[in-house]
Amino acid sequence: MEKIKTFQQHELNRIRKNWSESDLAFEKLGRSSNISDYSDREINEMLLGVYKDSKHLMVDEGYFIDLAKAHKASCILVDVSYSRRIKPAPNSILNLQDIRNFYIEDYFIETKEAFSNKNKHKITGYLKKIGGISLGKGQYNYLYSIPNDFKTFFGDTPADLFYPIQRYINGLFFDDDYRISDFEVISKIVISKR
Question: Are 12 and 43 in contact (CB under 8 A)?
């Protein structure tokens, strides 16, 4: 089971008591219109924009998309950091084993039909809120950091870059880590598969 950010019990209790002021969309997108029918975990997920029963997710721009209509995911890879002992030549092809962290600008989900007049939806904020990615540090404090833990590939891309989609979209909503498996890394960085 994926580990997601959790809210304090007093926050969940406050939502139960004052649900009409909460801006939660459970009456429209949930399985019940009664807040008492939801567990703490379900309320926690709704606070993060997750409605698993109807497969809806609130994206960064503040509207919901139906993930059942999603067909592709992508991310923008801006830079990488290396193990301390590695000093690659500029513009060289990188070896995946030498990379310590990936630095991402944004993640996106693409849908077959338009939501809010868009087919490409930014989910970077959602992944940050739920704990799937972290803010970078130092010179990368404007990007998101993902450690190179797996040091393997998923298709033509590093598996660690696909992992947030695998766990926090596919696993959380569909219980199928590969439901959306068309994944593209948009980058000028070339990483060797050997």
Answer: yes
